[in-house]
Structure prediction request, 319 residues.
Amino acid sequence: MSENSDISRVAVIRLGSLGDFVQAMGPCKSIRHHHPSAHITLITTPPFAEFGQASGYFDDVWANGRAPWPSASMWRFLSDLRGGRFDFVYDLQTSNRTSWYYQLLWPRRPNWSGVAAGCSHPHNNPNRIPMHTVDRQAEQLRIAGLTEILPTDLSWVEADTTQFDLPERYALLVPGGSPHRPAKRWPTDKYAALASLLTDAGITPVLLGAGAERDQLEAIAQDTPAARNLCGRTDFQQIVCLGRNAQAAIGNDTGPMHLLAASGAPSLVLFSHDSDPDRCAPRAERVRTLRRPTLEALELDDVAHELKQMGMFGHDRFS
Prediction:
């Protein structure tokens, strides 16, 4: 792909969340291909800095993209942003905050792809909000002149998972989610029942989550002693590598499921009407979704049936 020789310094803004960050990896790779010789800086937040750096798409990573306002750290960030003297900025966050960054770069505003008023390459589709994140970003980049939009590819991820000493046959369960959106969580007792079902089928349930989900994961592990509880023990890269060898991954609409889907794991993602799979479900070849008005209404048999359709089981319980 040809490159505009006048563009030597590029910035990409993607602050979070994890699911959105994973779905931006394809666009980030596309930007790198479009500007193969440019110095590209990722502007993000601390949780994603190491992952972004490891991708190889960026020459530099700034983790201060969401400094609080007003604060000295915000003024330092704005000084850095002006000092970066970027020729082109791809704003994949497209928030009020990042559009405000564009306005504050006056009088030397760079070429800018995003939704900031007056920017050079506006994503001005009035129907952009209902679009799936992947489709919305692809359209935004095409407007900015990219002709090849690549899918998310996590084949570059490397991590040591030997310390977990997992058996050959295991399935990953992701029972957590945003603490402020409990309607996105399938009930703990149903995850525990699924863990028992997996154990009966000769598949070890492996529980993934962070500290906020500790009580939930401990309750599942207590109910199913054969389960392996990895709460708080895995980073993003390890989650990807665990996904590559998993029989399946089952979880709520939450960030780690995007990593697992992108890893190639056969993935089943559970949705309530609190979020819409047509707008935010992981995009990968081996992904299925189940949606109910409330996740309390989603029965274990529904999940078991879907897993059987995915070719996971030969157990009588799934006939």
Q: What stands out?
A: The first strand starts at residue 9 and ends at 13. The CA atoms of residues 97 and 249 lie 34 Å apart. The first helix runs from residue 18 to 23.
